[in-house]
Amino acid sequence: MKISIVTATYNRANLLPILYESINKNYKFHKNIEWIIVDDGSKDETKKIVDEWVEQSKYKIKYFYQENSGKMMAINNGMAYVTGDVVIEIDSDDYLVDDACKIISEDYKNIKDENVYGIIYKKKIVNHNTFVDEKLNGKTIKLFDMHYKYGYDFDMILTFKSDIRKKYNYLLENGEKFITEARLYYKMDQDYDGLIFKNKELIVCEYMQDGYTNNIKKLFKKYPYGYYAFFKECLNYKNNGMLLKKRFYLIKHYILFSYLTHKTIYECIKEINGINKLFVILFVIPGYIKSKKFV
């Protein structure tokens, strides 16, 4: 089984060698690997070091350069060159445990349900422990339900059947360069049974100060149109059994991004269906007042 790793990178020449060495270690356990690197307009030594790896690596490394268009567009472009059975998106500040690809390959061989689109694994966060109910291990679950019905919010790595993943792109709005990955994943949830959860830590991560996770408020203000579309979609998905605090989380953020994208109160209410419309009606005015403070 061939594993395709896709990495979008921007000025991370100092970090990419760590990921490269981890893939090298994985090659000892699993030979059928390819690594697709999409350089999103780096100004550092990224191309130079990757060119050296392309020449000396025992597995296929594909390098592509694009003018700076953002991580999501880089991943979209990289997916066109995936030839593996399984695809993993790995950030340039993450790295694999030594036998991750072997484990992934073995786990995929055991999938019986054709309507499962992938497997979820845990990330190991440096200086942080993540605990997940063992009852979830081996279960098929939609990622939307994991987040909003069961309340799990741990750092995870999603792996996909390539033929399914390549049907989808990260949808960007209004010329923006970023959207949360969850928007794509939840759309896949609508079409398939979900993913299988494996309680294994296969990726190691230490968040960088310039990373997306550490700058979420800046992202909210910089890319409001994508987030508006995302939260609107979430509220309009079938969401029976959603935890009340999670429903309020979605409503609060939907109202915030309605304000940030200059929607009128009428437009904000009009876009939502079902019981969530009632909650939006109740909270939209105080939400708009609070959103002014956020801005």
Any overview of this molecule?
43% of the residues lie in helices and 19% in strands. The chain has twelve helices and nine strands. Strands 1, 2, 3, 4, 5, 6, 7, 8 and 9 form a nine-stranded mixed sheet that branches. The chain has two domains: 3-205, Spore Coat Polysaccharide Biosynthesis Protein SpsA, Chain A (Alpha-Beta Complex), CATH 3.90.550; 223-294, no CATH class. The protein has 295 residues and is an alpha/beta fold.
Quick structural gist:
By secondary structure, this protein is α/β, with parallel strands linked by helices. Helices cover 43% and strands 19% of the residues.
The biggest sheet, with number of strands, parallel, antiparallel or mixed sense and barrel status, is: 9 strands, mixed
Mean pLDDT: 93
Straight-line N-to-C gap = 49 Å
Q: What order do the helices and strands follow?
A: EHEHEHEEHEEHEHHEHHHHH
Please name the fourth-level CATH homologous superfamily of the largest domain: Spore Coat Polysaccharide Biosynthesis Protein SpsA, Chain A
User: Strand share of the residues?
Assistant: 15-25%
Oligomer: single chain
Number of strands: 9
Could you tell me the radius of gyration in angstroms? 20 Å
CATH architecture of the largest domain: Alpha-Beta Complex
What best-fitting shape do the alpha-carbon axes yield?
A: globular
In the CATH hierarchy, the third-tier topology of the largest domain is known as Spore Coat Polysaccharide Biosynthesis Protein SpsA, Chain A
Top-tier CATH class of the largest domain? Alpha Beta
Domain count, please report it: 2
Structural class comes to alpha/beta
Give start-end ranges of low-pLDDT stretches: none
Treating each run of at least 4 consecutive H or I residues as one helix, how many helices? 12
Helix content class: 40-55%
